[in-house]
Amino acid sequence: MSRTLIEDLSNEFFYEIFEYLDSYEIYQAFFDLNNRFQQLLNSSYLLFKIRHCYSQSKEIIINKYKQIFLHNKNQIFSVHLWILPDNNQFISSFTIDSSFIRLESLVFRPIESDLLISFLPKLIYLPRLFSLTIDTWSALKDLGNIYQLIFNLRKLKYIKYKATESDDFDITVSLSIATNEQQVSTIEYLIIDHPCAYNELYNIISYTP
């Protein structure tokens, strides 16, 4: 009776398995097996989907994600981060640049408003960022600056923005109506999950095609 060894399975077989796994799980299970799997994990055929949740705060896990961001940034397809305040340094340590040539989707939930404002300008260097989902952790009185930074992302096609309401003040969106030069956004799907006045909504929509 013949036996099939793991070494006999094709690369395509493993790529299909990797489609269902988080990048940390892939590295943890396969990277140290042998040279073949190291080559597989560094191949341009493999795209990483990173999902880091708040329960994965152990230093060994965070360091593994940092390794992926450092050595495999050209293979990262999506990043989904659940961010607690004590994980802000983990996010701030990321260097975002044009070498993330395959990154198409980013999800931040929840994220502090100050951290979001400092992080959004870096996303302009991503050549294929098509989808962005934001859930802010702390309440912000005026969302105009955040929307202006979002509309500067010229490749974006999908944006969902949820802002935390406050009992102490009403949320406003200080955003002027878009000029002809500013109506260059590629956004096709705009989901707004926060209160705003009709005129503020009108001004936001004026930046979309």
Task: Describe the fold and architecture.
This protein is of the alpha/beta class. It has a single domain, classed as Leucine-rich repeat, LRR (right-handed beta-alpha superhelix), CATH 3.80.10. The protein is built from eight helices and six strands. The chain has a six-stranded parallel β-sheet with strand order 1-2-3-4-5-6, with helices on one face. The longest helix is centred in the first third of the chain and has 13 residues. The termini are far apart.
Radius of gyration, whole Å: 20 Å
What amount of the residues lies in strands?
Answer: 15-25%
End-to-end C-alpha gap: 64 Å
Quote the CATH topology.
Leucine-rich repeat, LRR (right-handed beta-alpha superhelix)
Which class do the helix and strand fractions yield?
A: alpha/beta
Question: What is the average of the pLDDT values?
Answer: 85
Q: What is the general shape?
A: elongated
The CATH class name reads: Alpha Beta
Structural domain tally: 1
In percent, how helical is the residue content? 25-40%
How many H/I helices? Answer: 8
| N-to-C SSE string, H for helix and E for strand | HHHEHEHEHEHEEH
Strands side by side in the biggest sheet: 1-2-3-4-5-6
Q: Count the beta strands.
A: 6
**Secondary-structure arrangement, i.e. CATH architecture:** Alpha-Beta Horseshoe
Largest sheet: 6 strands, parallel
Uncertain spans: none
Topology:
Elements: H1 11-18, H2 23-30, H3 35-41, E1 48-52, H4 59-71, E2 76-81, H5 88-92, E3 105-111, H6 113-119, E4 131-136, H7 144-151, E5 158-162, E6 189-193, H8 198-205
Parallel strand pairs: 1-2, 2-3, 3-4, 4-5, 5-6
